[in-house]
Amino acid sequence: MERYMTVAEAAERWDVSVRLVQQYCLSGRIEGAAKFGGAWAIPQKAEKPTDPRRIKRRPNVKSNVSEEMGSSEFIPMPLLNAPFCPGRCMEYVEKIADARERDIALAEYYYFSGRPEKASELSELYLSHSEPMLRLSACWIYAYSNLSLGQIQRVRYAMSEIKRTVDSAKEGASAEVMATAAFVSTGASVLLHLPINNSGYDEFSDCIRMLPPGLKMFALYIQAHRTYLDGEYGKSIGIIETAFAMQSEIHPIASIYMHLVAVMDYMSLKQIERAKEHLQAAWELAEPDDLIEAFGEHHGLLGGMLEAYLKKDHPEDFKRIIAITYRFSAGWRKVHNPDTGHDVADNLTTTEFAASMLAARGWTNREIAEHMGISPNTVKQHISTTLQKLGISQRRDLKRFMLR
Fold first, then answer.
1. Closest CA to 101 of 120, 126, 64
2. CA distance 378 to 382
3. Which of 16, 38, 85, 293 has the most crowded CB, counting CB atoms within 10 A?
4. Residues in CB range of 80: below 8 A, 6 or more apart
5. Which one, of 382, 375, 374, lies nearest residue 350 by Cα?
6. 193-232 burial string, b = 16+ CB within 10 Å, else e?
7. Alpha helices in 341-395 (DSSP H)
8. 253 with 79: CB under 8 angstroms?
9. 4: which strand partners?
10. What angle, rounded to 10 degrees, do the helices at 7-14 and 18-26 form?
11. Among residues 291, 289, 267, 263, which one has the least CA distance to residue 277?
12. Domain limits of the chain?
């Protein structure tokens, strides 16, 4: 008689997350798995599915391209690319054998856990390294860390190093280096909401398939974010759902960012329960390793979801997220405003911003109040204060001041 185990038992046996085992089942990758009611039954003899896309390091073979920009053994952004089990992030970092790769992964952890000072200090050591993948990784971390620290000259220096590396890559680099260069440069433009030319974005789209799995997932997040900024919320959700369906292993950091864009999309469509599901999924991945940076970065675009569903149960985490929001937003404005000339809300509290963002999307005071758990009069006061701070008199004028 066939014996079965639960999803939780399989997750423990295979040392992966419950969510990943569920995805294995849904995608038909576990032979003999069957669903009874709302639960999966997995044969005791079933083996953990392998990842056919796992990229192995190549031997250091000389090529006919330039030594600096040729093939690389270093996998860029090793932590972002890692399918570690939630709760074991630092354990994963400490087991990385290559000291350089371990430093970059640690710098990533510092950044994604909201400690930009440490991330900046560690990544700075590799800004001029001869290894292109390592240099691109360091520049990416250094740029975003110093954005949070308000050190805009350092941000611009890192961006110039990225551009220099990208320009060098065009002179005969390997496909992997070119893909990573496109990933880093286009990602910085999209996530900072700065203009990029369509040809550069098309090149980025073509390069996604050449990225390792974790970076590929984050690249699809960038695509979904760009599509959200264009107001195509349904299309953005389609990118997200396809990405989650195709992944064979969960890459926690990329998945957190992907879930948060889904929150933004569903809030724009007023599908609050679906937005809540994705917020909870993001938090389940983030909380065990304190990976809270993404929540602070996206706060203004989440439409009050953190106030509605995180503030009460996780007050201390919420305070830290809000601190990240203020810090990141201040740096974001310093980079964004001079380059675009756009008006961006500057001196609003996070609550005023969240309420005004929803108002700009057409929500009524009562809808905002029910969502954020405050009274309609409190919402009215927040909107009134926002109008005064922005120097406008009409509610319809809010849109041009809100982050898009």
1. 126
2. 6
3. 293
4. 108, 214, 215, 218, 251, 253, 254
5. 382
6. beeeeeeebebbeebbebbbbbbbbbbbbbbbbbbbbeee
7. 350-360, 365-372, 376-390
8. yes
9. 43
10. 110
11. 263
12. 4-43, 89-298, 342-401
| Its pTM surpasses 0.90 | no
Tokens of 331: 């740096």
CATH number of the domain at 89-298, please? 1.25.40.10
Residue 191: pLDDT band (50, 70, 90) is low
Question: In terms of pLDDT, which residue wins out, 36 or 275?
Answer: 275
Q: Which two tokens stand for residue 47?
A: 């083996």
Reading the block at residue 172, the tokens are 């005969």
Helix 252-268, helix 233-246: angle, nearest 10: 150
4-5/34-36 β-pairing: unpaired
Q: What is the pLDDT of residues 55-110, one digit of tens each?
A: 333 333 333 323 343 444 677 899 999 999 999 999 999 999 889 999 999 999 99
Nearest 5°: the CA angle 300, 302, 305 is 115
Q: Which two tokens stand for residue 96?
A: 């990385």
Residue type for position 308: A
Tokens representing residue 234 in the block: 């349904």
Structure tokens that stand for 271 in this block: 């599908």
Exposed, middle or buried by CB within 10 Å (0-12, 13-18, 19+), for 330? middle
Place of tokens 């509610």: 395
Secondary element (H or E) of residue 177: helix 175-191
Question: Is residue 357 a contact partner of residue 303, using CB atoms and an 8 Å limit?
Answer: yes
Distance CA 202, CA 82 (A): 26
- Residue bearing the bigger pLDDT, 283 or 333: 283
Judge contact between 122 and 110, C-beta under 8 A.
yes
Query: Residue 39: which H helix or E strand, with range?
Result: strand 39-43
Edge-to-edge strand ranges of the sheet holding 39-43: 4-5, 39-43, 34-36
In this structure, what token pair is assigned to residue 146?
Answer: 């110093």
Please say whether the structural domain 342-401 has been given the CATH code 1.10.10.10: yes
Does the pLDDT value for residue 20 go beyond 80? no
CA distance 253 to 23: 17
